[in-house]
Amino acid sequence: MRKNTTVIAGSLAAFLLAGSVSARAEEVLRFATWDSDESLAIQQAIAKKFEEKHPGVKVQVEPYADGYDQKLVAAFGAGSPPDVMYMWNFPQYYTSLMPLDDLIARDAAEIKPDDIPQGLMNTTRVEGKTYGMPSGFTTQVVFYNKDMFKAAGVEEPKEGWTWDDLRAKAAKFRDKDNKVYGFAVDAKPDPYDFEQFLWSNGTKYISDDGKTIDGYMNSDAAAEVLDMFGDMARKEEAATLHLGDDTSGDTLFKGGKIAMFQSAMWSKAGIDAAGFGYGVAPLPKFGDKPAHSALGVSAMSIAKDAKQPDLAWEFVKFFSSPEAVAMRTNDLPVRTSVAEEKGMTSDPVYKPFFDILATSDIETHAFLKNRNWGKVQDNLARAIEATMIDQGNAKAHLDDAVKRSQRFLK
Amino acid sequence: MTIAATAPAVVQKRRSAFSRHLTAYLFISPWILGFLFFTLGPLLFSLTMSFHDWPVVGERTFVGFDNYRTMLLEDPQFWESLWITVKFAAIYVPFNIVMSFLIALMLHHATFASGFFRTAFYLPSVISGVALVTIWSWIYSREYGLLNFMLSLVGVDGPNWLGDPGLAIVAIIIASLWGFGGTMLILLTGLKAIPKELYEAATVSGVPGWAQMLFITLPMLGPMLLFTFITSIIAAFQQLTIALLMTKGGPLGSTYFFAMYIYDNAFKYFDMGYAAAGSWVMFLIVLVLSLLVMRWSSAWVYYEGEVKGGDRNA
Amino acid sequence: MRKTLLYSALVLLSALFIAPFYWTFMTAIKSQADLYQFPPVFWPSEWHFENFAIAWNKQPFGTYLTNSLIVVVFSTIGQLVSSSLVAYGFARFRFPGRDPLFILLLATMMIPWDVKMIPLYMEFNLLGWINTLKPLIVPAYFADAFFVFLLRQYIMTVPVEIDEAARMDGANAFDIYWRIHLPLMMPALVLVGTFHFMNAWNDYLGPLIFLNDQSMYTLTLGLSMFKGLHEVDVTSIAAITVVLCLPPLALFFLAQRYIMDGAVGSSVKG
């Protein structure tokens, strides 16, 4: 028996030792991204470009797609984060990220910070310091199916339209037998994006000092927004998304089941591929109040303990350089100069994205104001969902959310 | 199970206890080493963390029993998610075992195309989580789903399965039971291991079928039933993937399982200390439940080859 | 009559379990237009078999396949050897601390993964194992509680008298394990092999946490890459899912008859 055990132990040891111990001659820069598919391919191409300009450097692109947060938490928790990473959740991570203000000031001549809209830079700032460089962004718009509009004889949306206009148009598309709707409302929207409707109706989730939600999140203006969406669902002007199934608005819009669809740049490639004529309209207004949009920014951050901070900074700079920004076709250029050069600011498809950016730099996203926002947000999300199930009764649900959230604001 | 102390056995018994026990420890040494290498450290680490405020990407602060106190006294989510999990387990565990047992019995008696049937029932267990969502969302979707399409053929306007707070948990239970193939195979293996002679002798003596089931099949299957019982309880409490992918805890938190509560605290709120405390609470609950089942099982599990009393394997 | 009843029930039930697989396959070969039809399209008008090749070539799936195979083959061997040794130890010996140790073994099944993950990451990082396949293989050589428990329950259904007889013939403990219990355990070992194969093959969290570089990724990670934050590539998910199911299914179909021939008697008499 002893002999057999030795054999097993021996082969085990041999196996353990025969690992892949490959010496690395070149410098390796780890870069983590949440993108997949085409967007990932674009980033790999940018990384390749960077490698060409820096011989001896290898950029290891680490895509984690849906598992991004989980992976990053584990890596940070264990003290071995990637050198450079995509970032949006600055309040949670900023203590482990490198402040970039000094570097930006130092290389201002090269970076030209004025070329990047202030609204985008604001989303990377925590407690007055900048922790990320925007490399791509998107605002929210309404896509509409031109073929369906023509077939139904409905006039296409115009600039400056309101939610009342949208509802009137949407009602005309409802076709019960073929399960066609005019619009879609989301029962489980990303609260980050959803705040744009509160802004547009003159309120916000939380006070600017990050201490009060009572009278903000549950204000009459907020309840009005939710009740409106609930009412749209009840009157069948809109399909309800994510109430029980995973069917996305993208899917319904591409399949010709909804005529209008509120979304962002990430939907555009798929809609292009669907092969029908479509137009892009700005977000509707609440009455005559100006519409605001949430800002989705893909920013690049550097880990505080990055092994090669200089190289990492070069890489981050390159990602927001005109050359790299121009390569990104799956989101929008963060540089005004690139957008203008490509003629996007006057192109009818892209114009609405840029127009609303101009009015969207006055508000700050709630999560930048309070560290515990994540927990508050889950109660809020439940209130939105409850309103969509009830198809109304928003005030009561929001009050409840405020009550459940008070303990996180202490 | 008589202990016939034959002459050689007596001689062997006299060998030093040290050598006897050493052999036993050698056999279980892979697990002991693995426990020391890969489990003990993480276990102690998470226990320590449960007494800390640890926002993962930042400093740790010792907070004593604060995490546990907050969880038990101030956090309604804790009790809500625990209650949902208990409800789930109370339905899932018996159904999983009974269904597995019945189908295993059917397969045990089926001789024709048995390989095909066994593979068919195991099929769902082969499909990975990412694809499961797509499949179930296709089945349950209110407007475009297969289930409601079938119902519409018989003139029923199907409900919103995953969108109704009362129905969603039922839908999740069905989806979980669908992966019963593993449990079923374990029981089938157990059935196959019961010596046929027992049934033959019983039949000859005129023992009716139901009595054979009660006095031969069930007792002989006891060890395997116990196994599936305990592992089903553990699986029920750790239920996460299906709910996370299918309902994300909704609607209105009706499928917000305890494992998801821990998961959210860790990866959504970055509150690793709190998540660790939650994990320890869950660990203790499952451990106590399992020990109760183990104790209770001594009343109904019969081990043909139990090594009691004297040590006969030195 | 009873047989007819039995088989009709089996056919009906198994159809329930096969249907989703059928649907996954059909989704994989459907055209984009057929994908979102209502009522659902059960028999696609056009069959796009090229969808498999397209999905496969969207990512380095050849590399993923190699990595998955390495992990699955080596960890399954380790799991079979170590779990059967440990199970035999717990089932057939009496030694100080056996029962507490067995409870401890059971308890290790009950620890949620969320909290083990970070310390394990730290440990593997210290060992230099991050971004290698070792964290996915090596632990399998140290016996998994679930399988030990399963095999122990199985061994305990075997009468001790069989061991006794062998010992009288001069067999030592390892001989008894090797020559008597391993053959007897065969059906249960096939189960363990199947279950472990499936776990390792479909494991998503382990590879996600311990691997960084696409050249080290496994098939499941590749599959999950089709589900981005905003866009889900349904066709590719379905296609790769079908491909991913085939090896374990084929293997299971070949292995399952050993579960069938698990009667104790035959091997004992030999």
UniProtKB/TrEMBL annotation, chain A:
InterPro entries: SBP. It comes from the Bacteria. Keywords: Periplasm, Signal, Transport. It holds the Pfam family SBP_bac_1. Residues 1-25 form the signal peptide. PANTHER family: MALTOSE-BINDING PERIPLASMIC PROTEIN, MALTOSE_MALTODEXTRIN-BINDING PERIPLASMIC PROTEIN. This is Sugar ABC transporter substrate-binding protein. It comes from Shinella yambaruensis.
Automatic annotation (TrEMBL), chain B:
It is found in: Cell membrane. Keywords: Cell membrane, Membrane, Transmembrane, Transmembrane helix, Transport. SUPFAM superfamilies: MetI-like (SSF161098). It is a multi-pass membrane protein. Residues 82-293 form the ABC transmembrane type-1 domain. The chain crosses the membrane at residues 22-45, 82-107, 119-140, 167-189, 210-236, 242-262, 274-294. PANTHER family: ABC TRANSPORTER PERMEASE PROTEIN, ABC TRANSPORTER PERMEASE PROTEIN YESP-RELATED. Belongs to the binding-protein-dependent transport system permease family. This is Sugar ABC transporter permease. The lineage of its organism: Bacteria, Pseudomonadati, Pseudomonadota, Alphaproteobacteria, Hyphomicrobiales.
From TrEMBL, chain C:
It is a multi-pass membrane protein. The chain crosses the membrane at residues 69-90, 102-124, 136-155, 176-198, 234-255. Gene3D superfamilies: MetI-like. It is found in: Cell inner membrane; Cell membrane. This is sn-glycerol-3-phosphate transport system permease protein UgpE. Part of the ABC transporter complex UgpBAEC involved in sn-glycerol-3-phosphate (G3P) import. Probably responsible for the translocation of the substrate across the membrane. Pfam families: BPD_transp_1. The keyword Lipoprotein does not apply. Residues 65-255 form the ABC transmembrane type-1 domain. The complex is composed of two ATP-binding proteins (UgpC), two transmembrane proteins (UgpA and UgpE) and a solute-binding protein (UgpB). Keywords: Cell inner membrane, Cell membrane, Membrane, Transmembrane, Transmembrane helix, Transport. PROSITE patterns: ABC_TM1 (PS50928). Belongs to the binding-protein-dependent transport system permease family. The keyword Signal does not apply. Its main location: membrane.
